[in-house]
Design goal:
Distance between the termini: 32 Å
Largest sheet: 4 strands, antiparallel
Number of strands: 6
Radius of gyration: 15 Å
Strand order of the largest sheet: 2-3-1-4
Number of helices: 3
Helix content: 25-40%
Length: about 110
């Protein structure tokens, strides 16, 4: 399954910008991939993992803003049509397996 986190956070003041940046960093540190500036996605293994991730996001919520979370299947993710300035892109492939530890290539 996939989790898609979409958010619109206020950035008018310095504390709001910091809170928005902290939330983005939380998502990146938690293994989410940036799809667009305020849209992040992550592959998880099943509905129970979705609920766990939603709880983690809830604990990391910034004080203001609007956050929406969608979950959908691998097939639904594969069927997303993606356009960019380079034209229509082919669909992404789902990961073969979850990577728990990545070996440092250095």
């Amino acid at each position: 399954m996939w989790i898609l986190v979409m958010f619109d956070l206020p950035t008018d003041t310095k504390p709001q910008r910091k809170a928005a940046g902290d939330f983005r960093n939380f998502l990146l540190d938690a293994g989410y991939e940036r799809c667009q500036f305020s849209i992040y996605a992550r592959y998880v293994n099943g509905k129970k993992a979705v609920e766990t991730r939603i709880g983690q996001i809830e604990r990391a919520l910034p004080p203001a803003g609007d956050i929406q979370i969608l979950s959908f299947t691998d097939r639904q993710f594969r069927d997303i049509v993606h356009f960019s300035d380079q034209g229509r892109r082919s669909p992404r492939k789902n990961p073969e397996q979850l990577v728990l530890f990545e070996k440092d290539s250095a």
